[in-house]
Amino acid sequence: MPPIALTIFGAAMALLAAVASPAHATGPVSTDHVRAELVAGAEAVRPGETIRIGIHKQIIPHWHTYWLNPGDSGLATTAEWTLPNGAKASDIIWPAPERIAVGPLMNYGYEGEVTLLTDIAVPADAPVGGSFPIRATVDWLVCEEICIPEQVELGLELPVVAAGADAGPNTGSAHPAIADAEARLPVDSPWTARFEASDGTLRLAFDAAGLRRESIEDIWFYPNEWGVIAHAAPQQLSVEADRIVLAMIPGDAFQPTLASLDGVLVVKERAGGQLLTQALTVSAQAGTVAAGTGSLAGLSVGIGTALLFALLGGLILNLMPCVFPVLSMKALALVEQAGKQPAQVRLHGLAYTGGILLSFLALAGLLAALKAGGTAVGWGFQFQSPIFVLLLAYLLFAVGLSLSGVFTIGGSVAGVGANLAARGGYAGSFFTGVLAAIVATPCTAPFMGAAIGFAIAAPLPVLFAVFLALGLGLALPYVALSVWPSLLRLLPKPGLWMERFKQFLAFPMYGAAIWLVWVLSLQAGAEGVLTALGGMLLIGFAAWLYDVTRASDRAARHAGSGLAALALIAAIGWGIAAGNQAAPRTAPATAEAGAAETTPWESYSRQKFEALRAEGRPVFLNFTAAWCITCLVNERVALNRPDVATAFRTGDVTYLKGDWTNQDAEITAKLEEFGRSGVPLYVFYPAGRDSQPVVLPQLLTVDIVLGGIGAG
Known about the structure:
There is one protein chain. With 712 residues, the protein is of the alpha+beta class. It starts with 11 loop residues before the first strand and ends with a helix. The relative contact order is 0.10.
């Protein structure tokens, strides 16, 4: 399950001492947000029979807890039962949920009051005349704008009476909350259902004759499993003479091989001036479903959501560390342009935006070409190439040399006039946009995963549109300052500090180049590092030679430029040759806890993962890459922390790390299983062979990890 936008920051726990009295709960337990108690469907139990128990929750206004499938974010309520020997508790029996919109997300859950039901089988040898104690440890996530995991201990004791015995006039009477919850339980659907996914649309059809469109207030399908549909996307309804059709967008976890689509259909219909609500249990089989007459093309809805997510993701990329050096350069450029005419400032903004958009179009085109050739690719795929990593390290190193003043490139290089020199400023803005797009690709921002995953699976026009929206989001802050130049007056006035600041900006560039050499060491080993350092030596020599000879006479200038060009060609040629010969390095199989790795992990493989799942072991998956800055930050601030290591050890959680630094088909397949086109991806599988995966957000904190694994 995806986490995107909500932050878990704390946990509140309440404990109730169980003091029993027949036919009554030990009393309600209150947290800051929820009042909970156990209630029973009868005032006594009989040996060999079943009694229905409810976890009755009263939630404070504006807060909510979650259904079996929480939707875009959240966690379902869980209960761990402590019962007399021989007694067994069923899984939670869920009343029909409600839709709860939180910003752009759609969650499924409950507000106000809700009772979650469980059937408990009483053993046949339960002693008549004794008591039957029921205890439950209940965990839930309660959310408004923030989410807080809470845990309570609830208790209830009921007398044991003989089968058929008269245990008082109220024996067998249900608590009112039980009856209310049973009225909200889904019933078996009377309609045959089938589904089909094609052309980016998931159509769910029901053979339901006689329904009138004008009487239907709302119909909504809630899937049992997370990610089968895009929860926040509209469900377009078509009502025909003999059937109804819902057109939906497949979600991140939808699989084309899905044989059965299970969930709850909630129908709200007006009859006799009243609004009637009926929840139906649905188990639709794969089949052929013709498009409904009233449905929209699924992709048109999906494109809107994908474009919005791409725009937001691109905007958030501006806050990522990989883009910081380039943004610093643009901040300096903004100060320099503060005194220029507004029209000039706008042209610089357009040039910068053009560089970003053209780069993202080129990236989308390369993705499309590789995809057409049968290659599995995703966001940041180019960093899996040692040659690309090496050339980008060269580029950032050269930019650093320029900022340090080792060499400069201006209109005088080619001896052209002042007009072309001025245009060179716009070219500088354009290529700064290109550089911003390139250095942004190792980072992943919230919302980007779903948008890019949708785009890669969509037709070419959609792919290009989503990548353009992503680029526009990245350029948006600078575009805003360019369109409203009056904002530039808020920046400091130009002065000597600008030259010092420009020189300072060289060091983030050098740092980025060093990081890329480290990535190269993991891809190509010591030979790759030697190639990178040797190439940087040649680039440094070329930059120095070019700068010291450009003011000389014509012969010396041409000789210096020629030798500098040869040095550059040698550096690039050496790098490409070495990159083509580099053998992929494999990640270590395990990492023990130590100074660098607080949380021990094992290397991911499909065979190892499936073996752990077959044993019912809890598993935490971390798909990462050495070139993914977001991944490295998450590991540093969240995963490699003592609290997380302790929680993994206490919960017997096996931590598997999948290294996507180099291309890996198994990891790519797992990413595609969750609708992702790149890293990071964090997934927790609770204990149990059939447990459902919990997808964590792309930006982690310790509290988010602990909450995701149920240890918060």
